UniProtKB/TrEMBL annotation:
This is Protein GrpE. One of its GO terms (molecular function) is unfolded protein binding. Participates actively in the response to hyperosmotic and heat shock by preventing the aggregation of stress-denatured proteins, in association with DnaK and GrpE. It is the nucleotide exchange factor for DnaK and may function as a thermosensor. Unfolded proteins bind initially to DnaJ; upon interaction with the DnaJ-bound protein, DnaK hydrolyzes its bound ATP, resulting in the formation of a stable complex. GrpE releases ADP from DnaK; ATP binding to DnaK triggers the release of the substrate protein, thus completing the reaction cycle. Gene3D superfamilies: 3.90.20.20, Head domain of nucleotide exchange factor GrpE. GO terms for cellular component: cytoplasm. Residues 19-50 form a coiled coil.
Length: 179
């Protein structure tokens, strides 16, 4: 084989060699990326499990904290019932229940739980109108009666106060209309 023939053969074979090198290089990159993605997926799954476990632990600790605070109230109730069994009067029992009730509310207030105070005007964010009463004696949307108390935890309403609300008479007479 002459030199020219050898050169021609090398030039002709070179594109195949280059393609094989490129394919080999890309295959290695693909394998590395696949391995990296599998590692990232495994890390993300572990992160999700850790986050869920942490969340459950926080909830469990919060429940434990509140239950620990309620134990003295349970102890007081038990003492009150025992006192009745040992002959305490109704008045003494009633006074004891009022003290326990106040103690419970103080504990709940300290934790951010409050009864919604109902003012004169209807507040759609804290009240639920269960009945509209037509009247000329009150201003429109005045609260006439609290049917059930409402409660909120910090600023979040857990249960709106159920109220009866005054509305202007539609026909000129005083009649009740249910919502």
């Amino acid at each position: 084989m002459t030199e020219n023939e050898k050169l021609n053969e090398m030039v002709e074979n070179k594109p195949e060699t280059v393609e094989e090198d490129l394919i080999e290089k890309l295959t290695k990159e693909k394998e590395q990326l696949t391995k990296y993605l599998k590692q990232l997926k495994a890390e993300f799954e572990n992160f999700k499990k850790d986050t869920l476990r942490d969340r459950e632990m926080i909830l469990k600790n919060a429940n434990e904290y509140l239950l620990t605070k309620l134990i003295p109230v349970l102890d007081d109730l038990e003492r009150a019932f025992n006192a009745v069994e040992q002959g305490a009067t109704f008045e003494d029992f009633y006074k004891g229940m009022k003290l326990i009730y106040k103690k419970l509310w103080k504990l709940l207030n300290n934790e951010g739980f409050f009864k919604i105070e109902v003012g004169q005007k209807f507040d759609p964010f804290e009240h639920e109108a269960v009945e509209r009463i037509e009247t000329k004696e009150k201003e429109e949307y005045d609260v006439l009666e609290v049917v059930e108390n409402g409660y909120k935890y910090h600023s979040k309403v857990l249960k709106p106060a159920k109220v009866k609300v005054a509305v202007k008479p539609s026909r000129g007479d005083n009649g009740a209309q249910t919502v």
